[in-house]
Amino acid sequence: MPTFDTRDHVRLAYEDYGTGSPIVFVASWVLSADMWEYQVPHLVEQGYRCILMDRRGHGRSDRPAAGYDIDSLADDLAELIALLDLRDVTLVGHSAGGNEVARYLSRHGEDRVARVAFISSTLPYLELTDDNPEGVPEAACEVLVDAMRVDRPKWFADRAQGFFATHLGNTVSPALIDLTMRQCLSAAPWATIAFWRAAFHNDGRPDLRRITVPVLILHGAADQSTPAELTGRRTAKLVPHAVYKEYPTGGHGMYITHAAQLNADLVEFVKG
């Protein structure tokens, strides 16, 4: 698996498959490149090049003590794109990975990017503030942190069914649920909390307002992790030229439960 060293000497792992127009996948909070196993083979077979990176503290990358703020993570993404000299890129970010995608565009520009897709994103802004009355109180952020410090595996296990919205008939085997939970727990405990806090406090509204390239927003109406009314629908209003699609039975893990539909929407978007 190839790696590269960042400006602050952190070694990051990435994967590179296929040829053609490049699609760069940015994983969710606590998940790594492995989460995209239901997208990459299909897209490579459609003639696209797929690049996936394990962010710092995740997967097979180094586990430093610092650099989990959104600016630094966006800079890591920029270093990979520059290293591979990628052009005409489609950036795809899931959940908190959408923060990195939006910040990359804000900090590094759109010269290398043709379009972006936000899937189940935490954007635009989770924290309750005077100018964000729809947000979540700071205390809720720290309740989550406290729970993970007591029993991190239990916190993820308690939310497994809701992650996939199985109560709506989405079929996910116990083995696949177990695999996803193990992938979540593979992130460094330090990175798990540091990146969560960074994403929770990140105000992505200025970043979204600057985007001029085509945007696709895919969200699940049954997403318990990032409710559509707090995230996806609001993001669509901030990016009026975006295409917004909401899956009625989609949960946060719809990249698995609705993989065929999601893949078709991505291919249609990239071709368009």
Automatic annotation (TrEMBL):
- Per its UniProt record, what InterPro entries does this chain match? AB_hydrolase (IPR050471), AB_hydrolase_1 (IPR000073), AB_hydrolase_fold (IPR029058)
Pfam families in the record: Abhydrolase_1
Gene Ontology MF: a single term: hydrolase activity
Keyword annotations for this protein? Answer: Hydrolase
- Domain AB hydrolase-1: residue ranges: 22-259
The name this protein carries in UniProt is: Alpha/beta hydrolase
